[in-house]
Write a structure and sequence with these properties.
Elements (H helix, E strand, L loop, with lengths): L1 H8 L3 H34 L3 H33 L3 H17 L10 H24 L10 H28 L14 H24 L10 H17 L5 H32 L3 H29 L1 H21 L3 H12 L2 H15 L5 H14 L3 H13 L2 H19 L14
Helix pairs in contact: 2-3, 2-5, 2-6, 2-7, 3-5, 3-8, 3-14, 4-5, 4-7, 5-14, 6-7, 6-10, 6-13, 9-13, 9-14, 9-16, 10-11, 10-12, 10-13, 11-12, 11-13, 11-16, 15-16
Length: 432
């Protein structure tokens, strides 16, 4: 206990708070735009019909995923060459904020489909690229002994930001009667205004990071040279991946189990509606409940991560996810489903937070940006596999239960691969 206290004394508390607030800030984008409010408005209000709109939105996210997969490792490597992450983070955050704000102009007419999808893609790319540079700042504001708890705190604060912004969006704008600020419900201005809320939320709460989180001085390498050296570094890293076999094995494991976790979270609402006939209101309440328990889990397991290590934290969380998800898939009544889903979601946060910490502990300091770029790439390159498996098995069997059960296979495969990964001790640095 004294060792943990001593380690925490070495960190800049203001920087840690600022770091966590960035997660609080950008969660408004994923919660309001991608998951609940704007995505639904696009499918039901802008597109020609809901089915077409859902397909168009999915395709747009796939296009964004391609750009993210291509740019993530390259920009991460460039960040390593220059030694700076904050300037890049500021740039892509501004891109996300600006593109999100432009969604305000997406009127409820099929003519505005190209406008809405274009800026949704741009905003999503900006958001995801920003996470590379944000994650790479984690070691700069923590010690090796506090990586786990700070990562967990940030994830937990992020869930809180998503929840609070969603509450404001739903009750302050979307469901407010009458609509505030003279917004015209006939042209869906009360819904479109949620994009301005997300943009403003992101801007305001991300400012502390840019003001209070410090990083090493720039290497002084010109931008053009940094691009060339970054690309060369990335190519060399990919060619010589056998020299980082442990990291490579971890990236594959994380890619598989993260795809399963993402699929369960994204399609959980659909599963609840199809299998148990839940109303939209019930699904929203379910989503809020899952975010709350996931955030609490991320907070609690941050300390556990530092005590026993990231690998054990992920293994325990994955085992719990497999057990609880199996109950979710087999549940025949709504109460059993609710309880199992709440238990399951408790381990979403720990898996995500500990995975980020594991990447930080495994990465050599001079390659952290590049490694987090590969980490982001591994998380995106097969992101379509989970939903595709669910859809294919559902079509083949006519059972959504069996379709969702494919995520259990992915979770188990990721767990088995992870067991072979060697982890540095919780208080040491991977580079030694």
């Amino acid at each position: 206990m004294s060792e943990a206290t001593s380690a925490s004394d070495k960190i800049d508390r203001k920087a840690v708070i600022a770091f966590c607030l960035y997660d609080f800030a950008n969660s408004a984008y994923t919660t309001i735009i991608v998951t609940f409010v704007f995505a639904t408005y696009f499918a039901q209000g802008i597109a020609a019909d809901a089915t077409t709109g859902s397909a168009q939105w999915s395709l747009a996210m796939a296009v964004a995923g391609v750009f993210i997969a291509l740019l993530s490792p390259i920009l991460g490597a460039i960040g390593d060459q220059t030694g700076r992450r904050k300037p890049w983070l500021i740039a892509v955050s501004l891109i996300c904020v600006a593109a999100t704000a432009m969604l305000w102009f997406a009127k409820p007419t099929p003519d505005d489909v190209p406008w809405a999808l274009t800026f949704a893609v741009i905003a999503t790319v900006g958001f995801e690229i920003g996470m590379i540079f944000y994650n790479a700042l984690l070691p700069a504001i923590s010690t090796p002994a506090t990586l786990g708890r700070i990562s967990g705190w940030a994830w937990g604060v992020g869930y809180a930001g998503g929840l609070l912004s969603l509450v404001v969006a739903l009750f302050g704008l979307a469901q407010a009667d009458p609509a505030p600020f003279g917004l015209d419900k006939g042209s869906a201005e009360h819904i479109r205004a949620t994009a301005l809320l997300a943009a403003g939320w992101f801007t305001v709460f991300s400012l502390p990071l840019f003001l209070f989180v410090k990083e090493p001085e720039s290497s002084g390498i010109p931008a053009a040279l940094a691009v060339r050296q970054g690309l060369k570094q990335l190519a060399t890293s990919l060619r010589n991946v056998r020299n980082h076999r442990n990291i490579f094995r971890y990236l594959i494991a994380a890619m598989i189990y993260s795809d399963a976790v993402s699929t369960i979270f994204v399609l959980g609402g659909v599963y609840a509606g199809v299998t148990f006939g839940m109303t939209t209101a019930e699904i929203i309440v379910l989503g809020i409940s899952l975010n709350v328990t996931a955030g609490l889990g991320a907070f609690a397991f941050g300390w556990f991560d530092d005590r026993v290590g990231s690998k054990k934290t992920i293994i325990i969380s994955l085992a719990a996810l497999i057990a609880s998800a199996a109950v979710v898939m087999a549940a025949q009544t709504k109460p059993v489903f609710w309880v199992a889903a709440i238990v399951m979601s408790t381990f979403f946060g720990p898996v995500q937070a500990a995975s980020r910490t594991m990447m930080a502990r495994l990465s050599p300091p001079a390659m952290r940006g590049e490694m987090f770029g590969l980490f982001a790439l591994s998380g995106k390159v097969t992101a379509f596999v989970g939903p595709a498996l669910v859809g294919w098995v559902t079509l083949m069997t006519g059972s959504y239960r069996l379709g969702m059960s494919t995520t259990l296979v992915l979770l188990l495969a990721g767990l088995l691969l992870l067991r072979g990964v060697e982890e540095p001790s919780a208080g040491s640095d991977a580079s030694r």
